[in-house]
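Batch job 17 of 40 flagged for manual review because the log was empty.
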Amino acid sequence: MSRPIPFRKTALRGLAVLALSLAAGAAAAQPPPANASGWRLVRKYCSNCHEVRPHPAGRRSGADGAPNFAALAADPVKGTADHLRSVLGGPHSSMPPHQFSEEEVDGVIQYFQDLRDANQARKRS
């Protein structure tokens, strides 16, 4: 016959499982770590107006109707590297002015590509 596990140990195990579950959920909501620079850039410069998270829970737009990045990444024209380079290379409609370096532009483009790939994989599963 097995001995009952004391309440304290059971509670600690439950908290550990909960903490691991929350950490796994938070990790799933973040973009792939391979493109941390692109993620930092979009959070810093774009998230005031755009919804930049990979899975925006149904939000189709950010502030003032700015499209979310998941929708932009899925767009066959707006999600392309050429279009993103033109948008990030100079003033664009109501976007605040910012001069991105070539390396930063590449990071944002890679973020969009990773986002598109992740959302396509998510739809397949």
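Reviewer: the log was empty due to a logging misconfiguration, but the result itself is present. The CA atoms of residues 8 and 89 lie 58 Å apart. Unflagging and moving on to job 18.
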